[in-house]
Amino acid sequence: MSDTPRRSAYHHGDLREALLDAAGAILREQGPAALTLREAARRVGVTHRALYRHFRDKEELLAVMAAKGYAELLEQARMELAAEDRRPEDRLLTIARVYLRYAVADPARYALMSGARLNVDGRFPELEAQVTAGIGLLNAELEATAPGVTGTALRDAGLTLWAAMHGVADQLNQGRIRVKPERLDGYSRVLLAPVVRGLAETLRGG
């Protein structure tokens, strides 16, 4: 099947987005092992040669999908933080709430984002930039709990909170923790508020 008749249907990156949407559907339905460039192209209705104009290989496709996920997560966190003006601990819990909500809403994409590192060789600066932006947001909110704290203490606090959020998200997606969707936001606070309080006290030297 030739992709020539289809070219006029895609403009200004539409084909790239269509391929990403198709890859996301495959990821959700069958997992990363079933995701191939050929299958994504087949679903869109173009030959795999058309796909190679946008993605060099499967690793690049996965990296772009992960970067897009991080960008979406970061945007959601920023929007919710902008809508409130509360004490630093509550803002950290807002980040945790958004993180868990995102992980549960799209577990396949979340598994890709939080699984084995995709940018080991530095091929994908877009992905690294999104990850760095997320770390920066988390660190800024942590520092607000204890102004002036930087370096190792701040790094370790960020890793601890991320590990706690990831652990809860993983257990939720495995069904080991069962929470009704409408109760997820409140339950995230129940589970993670002690972690946030402990980190804040540690950063303040308490």
What does it look like?
By secondary structure, the chain is mainly alpha-helical. It is built from nine helices and no strands. The chain has helices at residues 14-30, 37-44, 48-51, 58-82, 88-105, 107-114, 125-145, 151-173, 184-203. Helix 4 (58-82) crosses helix 5 (88-105) and helix 5 runs antiparallel to helix 7. The longest helix is centred in the middle third of the chain and has 25 residues, at 58-82. It is elongated, with a radius of gyration of 20 Å. 29% of the residues are buried.
Task: Annotate the secondary structure layout.
Elements: H1 14-30, H2 37-44, H3 48-51, H4 58-82, H5 88-105, H6 107-114, H7 125-145, H8 151-173, H9 184-203
Helix pairs in contact: 1-2, 4-5, 4-6, 4-7, 5-6, 5-7, 5-8, 5-9, 7-8, 8-9
Q: How many strand elements?
A: 0
CATH architecture of the largest domain: Orthogonal Bundle
> Which parts are unreliable, with pLDDT below 50 for 5 consecutive residues or more?
1-8
**Terminal Cα span:** 67 Å
Number of helices: 9
CATH C-level of the largest domain: Mainly Alpha
CATH fold-level label of the largest domain: Tetracycline Repressor, domain 2
- What is the helix fraction of residues, given as a range? 55-70%
According to CATH, the homologous superfamily of the largest domain is Tetracycline Repressor, domain 2
Count of individual domains: 2
Query: Which structural class should the secondary elements be placed in?
Result: mainly alpha
- In percent, how much strand structure appears in the residues? under 5%
